[in-house]
Design goal:
By secondary structure, this protein is an alpha+beta fold. The chain folds into 3 domains: about 45 residues; about 120 residues, Sortase, Chain: A, CATH 2.40.260.10; about 110 residues, Immunoglobulin-like. The chain is built from 4 helices and 18 strands. Strands 1-2-3-4-7-8-6-5 form an 8-stranded mixed β-barrel. The protein has a 5-stranded antiparallel beta sheet with strand order 9-10-11-16-14, with no helix packed on it. A 3-stranded antiparallel beta sheet has the order 13-17-18, with no helix packed on it. Strand 1 and strand 2 form a beta hairpin. The longest helix is centred in the N-terminal third of the chain and has 32 residues. It is flat, with a radius of gyration of 32 Å. The termini are far apart.
Length: about 300
């Protein structure tokens, strides 16, 4: 008869080992549940299913989904083209995307001017025959952003890449490549001018004028910006314009005086006359600022 005491199986975990293993499993499941919860929060916040406070979203680094509005489109008068992006070549030349009639290739990261390359459609092979100066040139982006221009000129030939990619201009430039051996040409567009009309004054000595704003261009080094405007005297008394009648201010910053004005001030504008000015200011940064001309103000975007 064997009276020896039975020994525990070495392969069977002890009570302490089982407890540690159970704790590890519980902690692992808890961590997995937290990760799943965070993933759900990110997805729902990103898609806008529920609202997350902006400060919380920034703290948690939750990205914001950009709402899609429509397929990006470039409209040139009656013609419409879907927009695709084309990366800039490393050598600084213009890209050479596939020739797809009906597609406008936006040269990525071009904004001043926006640069597009396209091949006309078979239904409208000669855009130059359909477009006239002043016709609309409209860009609608996928995020609902809209850029409006008017055709200012049509030039034959293909411009140099450096001139367009320097990004020191404004407006929009569309290079049309008809194919079939036909020469390329360039369509240039500028933003339509903004006109401020003063209301009928109660004071007979008050200034009456119409101010039309042109393009605003930032210098290549980013230190200055130049804007053009025309002041028309619609009242019955002369308007005297002095340097102190012009200023530019970004939000929360003191007004900036112009660095230069062409023609030089002061100038007197007689009733019925107009004066075109080119004004250069220090660049206040920020992309938008308030321009003051006499007693009138307007927002500038650049």
């Amino acid at each position: 008869m064997d009276s020896s005491t039975p020994q525990p199986d070495a392969s069977e975990p002890s009570g302490a080992n089982r407890k540690r293993r159970t704790t590890a499993i519980i902690l692992g499941l808890a961590a997995l549940a937290i990760l799943i919860l965070l993933a759900i929060v990110y997805i729902l916040a990103y898609t806008g299913t529920f609202f997350v406070r902006p400060d919380w979203a920034r703290a948690l680094r939750i990205p914001t989904a950009t709402p899609l509005c429509a397929r990006p489109m470039l409209s040139l008068g009656p013609a419409g083209f879907s927009i695709e992006a084309a990366a800039r070549p490393a050598d600084g030349s213009l890209p050479a995307p596939a020739s797809e009639p009906g597609t406008a290739w936006w040269v990525a990261d071009t904004f001043a001017p926006f640069v597009f390359l396209l091949t006309p459609t078979a239904e409208m092979p000669d855009l130059g025959a359909f477009l006239q100066p002043g016709d609309p040139m409209v860009v609608v982006w996928a995020d609902c952003g809209r850029e409006e221009f008017v055709l200012s000129a049509a030039e034959s030939g293909t411009p140099t890449a450096a001139a367009l990619l320097a990004q020191s201009g404004s407006g929009i430039a569309v290079i049309v490549r008809p194919g079939g051996g036909a020469p390329a040409y360039l369509l240039l567009g500028e933003r339509p001018g903004l006109t401020l009309v003063t209301p009928e004054p109660t004071d007979p000595n008050a200034i009456q004028a119409e101010i039309t704003f042109g393009d605003t261009v930032v210098s290549e080094d980013g230190k200055t910006m130049t804007t053009g405007l025309t002041i028309a005297n619609t009242g019955g008394r002369p308007i005297t314009l002095a340097p102190e009648d012009l200023s530019l201010a970004a939000e929360g910053q003191p007004p900036l005086a112009p660095l230069s004005v062409e023609p030089a001030l002061p100038q007197e504008i007689q009733p019925g006359d107009s004066l075109a000015l080119t004004i250069t200011f220090p660049n206040p940064g920020g992309g938008t600022a308030v321009l003051r001309v006499l007693d009138f103000t307007a927002d500038l975007y650049y």
